[in-house]
Amino acid sequence: MTNKLAPTPLDSRASAVVERLHARSRRQTRRALAPLLVHSVKSRIRTGTWDPTQNADTKAWLADKLVALDPHKAELCYLLCRSLGARRVVEAGTSFGVSTIYLASAIRDNVAGGPGDGLVIGTEHEPGKAAAARRNLDDAGVGEYAEIREGDLRDTLKDLDAPVDFMLVDIWIPLALPALELVVPKLRPGAIVMCDNVVSGHKQYASYLEYVRSPTGPFTSVTLPGHGGVELSMKK
Ligand SMILES: C[S@@+](CC[C@H](N)C(=O)[O-])C[C@H]1O[C@@H](n2cnc3c(N)ncnc32)[C@H](O)[C@@H]1O
After folding, report:
1. 65 ligand 1 Cβ < 6 A
2. What keywords sit in the KW lines (predicted)?
3. Distance, CA 93 to ligand 1 centroid (Å)?
4. pLDDT digit string (tens) for 36-87?
5. Is residue 17 in contact with ligand 1, taking CB distance under 6 Å?
6. What is the residue extent of each domain of the chain?
7. Does domain 71-235 fall into CATH 3.40.50.150?
8. What dihedral angle (degrees, nearest 10) is formed by the CA atoms of 28, 29, 30, 31?
9. Can you give the pLDDT at residue 47?
């Protein structure tokens, strides 16, 4: 009988690593839902916004949480990067490197079909997470296709080569638009930007969505609803 879902496009070495990490992320998310609500309310009271970077307690609590992209969304990233022939990819929010493994695998598979090289530039401001991401990428066999820039992405994404073929925005919501604005000048026409949870977080994403959906702006944008929703925006 045919399976309901297509198998992972990753090779067996990478899929063994991501399966373990997806399972850990799912367990953490289940346990973290109630505390997350408490942190969110406290943060709003103290700072007026649910921006973990504005609140030391919440930032510390999130320091060991994977918050990994859902597997089917990560698989879509892989497919889009293969279809675009992506060689330079930017990821805003790397955490333990789960989505980065999909992006680096796509670049590795694109590079295998022709000359030249490729790289995913990941960004992570928690040193422990950045170190874990590098280890996980090496374990998955794709470490040479990823550079994890450690620090605040508002600094680490200032210096980027063009053209960028694909960008994943999987970051705390208040940082999504600042991250995108840094990368827009480097995106080639036809490049895709994927942003997670735009339906479940549509109020907090208002300025990001206004920007990518503006008819006079630099993107043509569509929304895939379900599972929090993703926004796919193509650079005009
Ligand atoms: C949703 S998680 C990313 C998950 C990752 N894409 C995956 O699939 O495994 C967002 C990450 O962004 C990091 N982050 C938050 N603010 C940041 C900043 N200003 N600069 C760089 N990274 C940041 C957080 O530490 C967190 O690990």
Report:
1. no
2. Methyltransferase, S-adenosyl-L-methionine, Transferase
3. 3
4. 777 777 776 776 666 666 677 777 878 888 999 999 999 999 999 999 999 9
5. no
6. 13-62, 71-235
7. yes
8. 50
9. 67
